[in-house]
Write a structure and sequence with these properties.
This protein is of the alpha+beta class. The protein has seven helices and 14 strands. It is 27% helix and 22% strand. The strands form four sheets. Strands 1, 2, 3, 4, 10 and 11 form a six-stranded antiparallel sheet that branches. Strands 6-8-7 form a three-stranded antiparallel sheet. A hairpin with a 3-residue loop joins strand 10 and strand 11. Helix 1 crosses helix 3. The radius of gyration is 24 Å and the shape is extended.
């Protein structure tokens, strides 16, 4: 039988990757936004969820969001003056403010360009938060215990999956039944991925999605720190660490939340206002 011409192997190494041209476009977009909008806000996110961040961007559709590699965004904020003699007091003030803003871009953070007043921005983000299901690595906010008995909210088809997650269940006349008391999680302890899935199946959210404004630069007031972050960059690793107040020891910690992966810090693509986002994994 002759070989089909449609049956061709495609090497994944030949696929296009977003490289220098994409980063250059992000830098140019940030430079344009710097001239177009009056205020720049540096923010971080607790319990990052793409779907929730998309809702925030929809509410602020007249503004622009950038969320990606810090080095790329810092280049967009960097001011370049060909002739130092042409610098006036306003340009010097702008350059110093941008330099301080770039210095605060540590860990996972993003930029918000808007012409809304600083007061309205702070009031909106202070009041906005959304409940979300916790992920593995999140510290439980309360103890969840299940008493023995039927679990009528679950279908019989999911019973094997519950057992695989560690729940002591069985089918009793087609009804999922817990044959002994089971502690899903304990307050203050880190959740395992299995515990996080069980809490999601039970419909018990523990995490809170919240955008925190850390600092800003406004054309009226210049640079200002709003909420100080307890992280700094080490000289050897160039990664953010949190300083312990009790013993002075340093340990690695995610800049956004305890349940986020470290590789999100080096996200290759900045998210902009008119881009499409992938749905949240959870």
């Amino acid at each position: 039988m002759p070989k089909s011409k449609r049956d061709k192997k495609v090497s994944l190494t030949k696929t296009d990757r977003k490289g220098l041209s994409n980063k250059q476009q992000i830098i140019e977009d940030i430079q344009q936004c710097r001239e177009q909008y009056d205020n720049i806000f540096l923010f971080s996110v607790q319990n990052m969820r793409n779907s929730k961040l998309k809702d925030v961007r929809t509410e602020w559709k007249n503004s622009r969001f950038f969320f990606g590699k810090n080095r790329v965004m810092q280049l967009g904020l960097k001011l370049i003056n060909d002739d130092e003699n042409d610098q006036n007091d306003e340009s010097i003030r702008l350059e110093k403010g941008m330099e301080r803003l770039r210095g605060k871009m540590i860990g996972q953070c993003g930029l918000l360009f808007t012409s809304e007043s600083k007061k309205s921005v702070l009031e909106w983000f202070d009041s906005y938060q959304a409940e979300e299901f916790a992920r593995g690595g999140f510290r439980a906010t309360k103890t969840v215990k299940l008493k023995p008995g039927p679990l009528k909210d679950f279908s019989h088809a999911i019973e094997p999956h519950l057992r695989s997650l560690g729940m002591p269940t069985k089918l009793d006349r087609g009804i999922v039944t817990l044959y002994k008391e089971y502690t899903v999680c304990e307050k203050g302890k880190l959740l395992t991925p299995e515990q996080a899935r069980i809490l999601k199946l039970l419909g018990k959210p523990m995490a809170t999605f919240k955008v925190i404004i850390n600092c800003c630069y406004t054309k009226k007031d210049g640079f200002e720190v709003i909420n100080k972050r307890d992280i700094e960059v080490t000289k050897k690793t160039k990664k953010p660490v949190k300083v312990s107040d009790s013993k002075g020891k340093k340990k690695s910690e995610d800049a956004m939340s305890e349940d986020e992966d470290d590789d999100e810090e080096e996200d290759d693509e900045a998210m902009e206002q008119d881009d499409d986002e992938d749905a949240d994994d959870e």
